Amino acid sequence: MQNIRNIAVIAHVDHGKTTLVDGLLTQSGTFGEREQIDERVMDSNDLERERGITILSKNTAITYKDTKINIIDTPGHADFGGEVERVLKMVDGVLLLVDAQEGVMPQTKFVVKKALSFGIRLIVVVNKIDKPAAEPDRVVDEVFDLFVAMEASDFQLDFPVIYAAARDGYAIKELSDEKKNLEPLFEAILEYVPAPSGNAENPLQMQIFTLDYDNYVGKIGIARVFNGVIKKGANVMLAKSDGEKEIGRISKLIGFLGLARTEIESAQAGDIVAIAGFSAIDVGDSVVDPNNPMPLDPMHLEEPTMSVYFAVNDSPLAG
Predict the structure, then answer these.
(1) What span, in angstroms and rounded, lies between the C-alpha atoms of 225 and 143?
(2) 119 and 159 in contact (C-beta within 8 Å)?
(3) How do residues 150-194 score in pLDDT, each as one tens digit?
(4) How far apart, in whole angstroms, are the C-alpha atoms of residue 276 and residue 203?
(5) Whether pLDDT at 55 is above 50
(6) I need a labelling partner for 192 at 20 to 30 A (CA). Which of 3, 15, 68, 313 fits?
(7) pTM
(8) What is the 3-state secondary structure (H, E, C) of the chain?
(9) Per-residue pLDDT at 74 exceeds 50
(10) Average per-residue pLDDT for the chain
(11) CA separation for the pair 185, 125 (Å, rounded)
């Protein structure tokens, strides 16, 4: 069974989230030597590039050692509460990225509180420690006080801390450590984020948490596989959140690695993939084994939610 970690990233605008994710992609070796990384990978939506905010959740994946790390971006504020809740239900750990001078900003507190309420343990990444006015120790104390105020558990209050300067491509466990690369952050993800629950031997259970659209194959559902194995060409049952059920065939099964979307033959419990084949697929729907139709509980999304599709490319699987 493949080693997998599923994480979300929470950060205020300008605290270095996209720079950090770019660094993780580059230093993991996920890109080939000839591949070039566009700056601000996670800000792929035109509006987001213009405004520097994250509205839609997007995901990418990297491979570090023998582990696949799925990284999902999160909106950084309460205006997109439904999107936040969906994303956090898909992950087992969170990177909370905070500026070493500014600390946790008000807009991110909603997302932090939601993550804590789900029982998730956060890894605190204090970024931009190279700023002349940086006060990383004060910022860590502020994070601790915030978690206490949000009624975090003792386990969550014992959060790991990584210090970083994402722009310069390094992370350290202690402020006195040598500044070399992002390896301490990779290692923290493997150590502190639990592997996904679920079993590939169980009947198929997966849930759609966001949508995409392709000009060739139509609606695409991006989902986490909670149990079992999903295969291209398989007949599955789509269990709608309103109780309706539909049998259909997986026409495309798409995996993520770096910025590429690639057709794959199968995926198993714990992974995050995209599927096509259902015109009626929607957020919150379950995809299950028609011979053992046990859909996951509906997500009970908070309002307001967004129904937004964005074209990925004219080619159905262009990286």
Answers:
(1) 32
(2) no
(3) 999 999 999 999 999 999 999 999 999 999 999 999 999 999 999
(4) 20
(5) no
(6) 15
(7) 0.84
(8) CCEEEEEEEEECCCCCHHHHHHHHHHHCCCCCCCCCCCCCCCCCCHHHHHHCCCCCCCEEEEEECCEEEEEEECCCCHHHHHHHHHHHHHCCEEEEEEECCCECCHHHHHHHHHHHHCCCCEEEEEECCCCCCCCHHHHHHHHHHHHHHCCCCHHHHCCCEEEEEHHHCEEECCCCCCCCCCHHHHHHHHHHCCCCCCCCCCCCEEEEEEEEEECCCEEEEEEEEEECEEECCCEEEEECCCCCEEEEECCEEEEEEECEEEECCEEECCCEEEEECCCCCCCCCEEECCCCCCCCCCCCCCCCCCCCCCECCCCCCCC
(9) yes
(10) 83
(11) 8
- The pLDDT, as a whole number, for residue 311 is 32
CA 8 to centroid of chain Cα atoms: 4
The bridge status of strand 67-73 relative to strand 59-64 is: antiparallel
Task: Report which residue type is found at 116.
Answer: L
